[in-house]
Amino acid sequence: MEERAFKALGDMPPEEFRRVGHQLVDWIADFFAHLDDIPVLPAVRPGDIRRQLPDRPPDKGEDFAQILKDVDHIIMPGMTHWNHPTFLAYFSITGSGPGVLGELLSAAFNINAMLWKTCPSATELEQQVLDWLRQMLGLPETLWGIVYDTASVSSLHAIAAAREQLMDLQIRQKGMAGRPELPRLRLYMSEQAHSSIEKAAITLGIGLEGVRKIPVDEAFRMRPDALKQAIEADRRNGWKPFCVVATVGTTSTTSIDPVPEIAAICQQENLWLHVDAAYGGAAAIVPEMRHVLAGCEQADSLVVNPHKWLFVPIDFSAFYTRKPDVLKRAFSLVPEYLKTPEDQEVENLMDYGIQLGRRFRALKFWFVVRYFGVEGMVERIRNHLQMARTFQQWVEDHPDLELMAPVPFSTICFRAHPRGLEDEHQLEQLNQQLLERINNTRKVFLSHTRLRDRLVLRLAIGNLRTRPDHLQLTRDIIQQQLDAFRKSGA
Ligand SMILES: *Cc1c(COP(=O)(O)O)cnc(C)c1O
Is the CB of residue 196 below 6 angstroms from any atom belonging to ligand 1? Predict the structure, then answer.
């Protein structure tokens, strides 16, 4: 091919990449610098963004400057800013500067780490940073780690391994359908566990009826006595118990299931114990919080999401198991074209899950830990816990607010409960409107949950840009809205 024609068909020339790349990095730096000045929530209706986009893709290439302009004019107005310091809904997260740069470099390399051979650095860095994280969490060396995209997928793999451990049932080979000789499998979780566990049960053929929800105590923790009774009753009735999922930091209230007692039951009953510590696990890097993972050294598997509370951009879910051989037995299937001469010496990460291809996610984690240092990360988490204490105290001291759950981490569940108003129906409506009005300011974003059939507001602190003045602003906004209610006589 002629050189000129080849040039016309190649990638963006390096000099142009350098120029527009600098522009984009400047854009991102300005974005981070001025997040405080823009609303956390957009003012758009469904369809508003799509309406502004052309029906057809462009026939001719466009100037990069034009594309960036449309980011400002079309995309930005429809953004819910998860990196915003007053994003306090769901679990607040941060894509930190070093994490964003890690994503950039990872995209530039564009490797696929399905095998050790297809990118030795990616496999080995992943193994090493997961061992670093294990040490940071105070977990034993017997745990082997791998990165998946989300906690949902990590837990799916845990439950698949638990099912594989029932070797005599030969489910990998024969499946589960049309086998009347197969006992029905039962999985246990608390009624406060995350919906991803039930989704895993749906995916793996356990079915929703195969999930038994164990009642919780007054602090929303799984009751071990009820677990024990449920297992015994199920065995009497012909079910085959195979797995228990305990949660450290449930999604509604961040309650901590009593893992040591649950682990003892799993040991006696010979059940796989998976711990979902997607959010709460991160706190264990703080020495005085390490107790939240007590008992987890006995778990068969555990998931922690550094993309939730360790400043790594989504997605990055760290999965640990002390039985990688069982996980491998569940998933390894190697076609001829994926065999390599090193297979006996190395771990090929495709053998430990459903996906073949995998991104170079370890790079961003490596950047984050090296840039902040373990001490820097501990200080930041500690600071979030401190800010949560302050907010909790404000709620507890406030005559018109009510704390609705204990606060083991940095998430506060509360509701408006003005003096003298005891009608639950009215309280429901009041809190519904309060949440709407707070979020309609677009200055802070809170979310909600339901506890003992009561609507509860949820405020989660986990963004490294959130400072005490942001929480002061949040308190002021809540107070203003409460005052507005009082005036309107509602
Ligand atoms: C957030 C959360 C999940 C789901 O996390 P994804 O990574 O989005 O799948 C699961 N379990 C708990 C306890 C969570 O808080």
Answer: yes
